[in-house]
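Lab notebook page, bench 4
Experiment: in silico fold of construct C2
Operator: M.H.
Input chain length: 478 residues
Purpose: comparison with the prior construct
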Amino acid sequence: MSSFIVGVKGIDELLPSLLYPGSLVVVAGHPGSGKTTLASSICYKNALSGNRCLYLSLQESKKKLFRVMKNLGMDFEELENKGLYRFLRMPITKRVEEVVELISKTIAEYAPKIVVVDSMNALMQFISNSEKRALIQNYFYSLPEMLDGIVILIVELPFGEEKIDLGSIEFVADVILALKHRIERGLLTRVMEIRKARGAPVVIAEIPFTISQDKGIIAYVPPILAEITRGGAELKLPCSALGRVLDHIHRGHVIYMEHPSSFRPLESVPLLLGIALKNDLKALIVSYRYPPETQLNLFIRAYSICGYSREDLRKIIEKYVVFKALNPFGYSSAEGVAEEIKLVEEYNADIVMFHGVELPAIADRISPNYLASLYNQMNTLKKMGKLIIRVGSYVNYEMSNLFSALADVVMKFIPTETSEGEQKYRVYIWRRGRNPYLLRYEDFQGCLKEICEIIKEKLKPQKQRLQPTVGGDCYGSV
């Protein structure tokens, strides 16, 4: 088991054996990509466990580094006061022997387990003699074994370049982490490429991440499952019409519900709340379109046909449903998936409904990254035993077919018009393993009435608790 950690949740879980005694680690990247933050994070988190860290800087000033890192949740001044961190400003010189002597003397005196060199470019640019360059490189290559710890070399890549142009460093390094950043949909997207990890089973090559105030680096490790998960326990359907058409559904099923963009029946989404009510399950609704209070009001309005008071409907709905809203244009696809799974875990939801699913797809133009994130998210939720419901507007044939192909149950609303000009609908329903069926408007309305009866049963215990106790010790006021 590794004696050292990266200090970034997700990466340490994915690669617990990435850093080990004797490792030479290269953190490479373009200017502003987060190299110093990552190297400092490794240094800081391991120092908290008692592993002394020596930070050798040729560029950063101590005052500036401490201030920036404190804003990211790392208090190096406190570590320094405890003797767990030492900052050494290196002189820029052509005399290699002077550099080696200074580092060796400091290491012998301080006995660190981690050494950070910031940066190798600044150190090497003044050393033109090939023999002296080889000398300094060999010194750093052998240093991890001497420390029985790890050495982190920060290497800056010019914009547009991917290759580390520092001799044989890529061949002798045990770990190479290449940090990249790019603009997607107007957002700064950061990616950590695990270019090399000797002895560690690397499955995921790129990990999106952000740098957050007070939290430092936050990684969004893509949920990837090697196998397709089976469906879970059987769930009861909330009405006889759906039971007749679908027979049954399971935890782990994906239901896709689609309506025309200009025709959105009010009762379409609330119908599926009946599954939560019928099975006593908790539902989480993540809308990409409406804020939580608007979602709640739409549910209450849809169930107004039940004849119950607004307050009663609110209590029942809030007991079984948590409403959340996310702006899909405010996250990269990987960040959005991570945020949604975090919400599912936080609220321990049994049913997860995504409302307005066409919007994230439009935002990412159904890119390969979007498809991979979506498919892995659905399989992760399946493994967690969740019923997944995806609701969206029809945008085009390609998107409709894609979402339908990923679903176990498909429900599509088809507008119809009565002789009096009233707009109604039929519902095309298909379930894997069964023939398609067209459900009439009257059947669908009948479903809602059956759900009203379920709500009535749920309301009874509440009403009974409010009944006065006959013959009790309570007296009314005069």
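Observations: The domain at 234-466 is CATH 3.40.50.300 (Rossmann fold). The chain has 18 helices and 19 strands.
Next step: discuss at group meeting.
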